[in-house]
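Entry 14. Structure prediction run on the chain below.
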Amino acid sequence: MPTRAPTSPARPPDPLTTTAKPPVRRRVVKVVRPCRKTDLREGILSGVDRNDRIRGERHTGGVTSMLADRTYQPTTTTRPDTVPEFVEDVFASLRRADQRRWARTYLNGLLNTPGRKTLQRLARAGAHSADSAHGLQQFINSSPWDWSTVRHALAGALASHARPRAWSIAEVTIPKRGDHSVGVHRRFDPDAGRVVNGQRALALFTVADAYSAPVDWHIVLDNTWSHDADRRRRARIPDSATVESAWQHVLRFAVRAAHAPRLRHIPWVLDLRRVPDHTRITGDLSRHRQTFVAEVLPTQPVVAARAGTQPVIAAEYVARGHALQAQLVPTPTPAGTREPVLLHSGPVQLPEQGNAEATDALPVYRLIVRPASRTHKAARYWITNLVDRSVEDVVSLTRHTRAADTAMTELATDFGILDFEGRSFPGWHHHMTMASAAYAYTRLHPHRRGRPHRAPGTLERASLPPVRLTS
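Output returned:
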C-alpha cells in the first residue's frame, strides 16, 4: 500500500479571508425599550447589551447622556448598490479584496446601527451575522492598512462633490474608564468644569456649503505617554507620535493639507480663544502661505501697524479707536435671514511670543471686532491675514466653526466616534477613518439613507459642549 505523506499541522484560518459559517437560525423575541436617564448610574448605559462593554472601559459622564433619551430602534438599511461603489473609490488603496469587503461591512454597520457601535452590533447590521465581529475586530485592530491614504481619498471625494470653503478644526473628549486605551489621561475639562479621564482628539474638517466633514484625526498624547516605552509598545504607538502642543498639531494638519492640490488654497477658520501659544499658529500658517481667520480673546496683544507703538490688548486697542473703520455688514441669523451688524476693522501686527518689542519684520493682519450690543451680549474678536478680502467675506467664513462643531456632535451621537473598544494607536485611527467615511457617505448620498440628512447648523447640541482648540 502506498504510504501517506506526512501532514503538517493545520494552520488556524485567517479571519480576514475565511468566510464565516452561516448562523444557526433561531427564533428570538427581543423586547426593546427606550433608554432611561436612570440607566446612566455610574456612567453605564444599562439599556445596551453587556457585550457592549469591554475590559471595564465604559463611557462615563456627560457625553454618554447624549444617548439617554434615544430609542433603540432599527434604521432603514442603506441601499446596497451605492456603498460598494463608494468603498471601491475611497478604499482603493486597500489592495486586498477581503480588506475592502471588511471595510464595506464595517461601513454598512456604522450606517445602519443605532446607539452604541459595538463590534457585535456592527456585524449584525453590516453582515447580518454576529459571527463576523471577529473579522471586523481583525480588520480594525490588526490589518495593516494605511489610514492616511484613505483620508486623502475621502477629502478628494468630498471636494469633487462640492467646492470646499474652509478648513476648520474641532476637538472632542472621549471619556473612558481605565488607563490602558491609547492616549487616555486625566485632565481638567473647562467645559465640564471638572477633571475627566479619557482620550482627547482633534479633527480636521473640510467645510463646504453642503457639508462639514472630518478628513484627518490626531489623538493628543500627554506626558504620561512620553517616556513609558512598555506602555507605548502595548498600545503600538509609533516613534513619530510624540507629545505636542496645539500649534504643533495644527501645523501638521496644515502641512498635510498643503499636499491636496484642490484644497491647498482654501482658508483656515479657527477658534483659538483657549490656545495660549496661538501666535505660533498664525505665524506658521502665514509662513506656509496659508490664509486664515481666527477668533481670539479680547486680551489678545496687538500692535498698531505703524512704527513706534507699544503692544496693547485688543479690547484696549478698540477703545482707543486706533485706525479702526466702522461699517454695517449684513450677517446671517439663526432664523435664516440677514441683518446688519456693526463691525470695526483695522490693520494690526501680533507681537511674537517672548519678543513683544520686535515688530519691524512682522506681517500685517486685520483685526475685526463685533462690539457688544443688545443682540450680542459679548464682543467678539478675529485676526485674519485675508487683508485683501472684504470684511463681509471674512466674517461669513466664521460660521464654518459652528458647522464643524455641529458635525462633531453628530459624529458622536450617530457615527460612533465615542465607541472604539480597542486599545491600540492603529486601531483608533482605523476606527476614526471608518466613522469619517460613513459620515462623508451620508453627505455624498443624503437621499440613500433611512435617516434624513440634516444640513449643517440644524442639529441640536445635546449635552456635548462646544468643541474648541485648547492648550
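The first helix runs from residue 61 to 64.
Filed with the rest of this week's runs.
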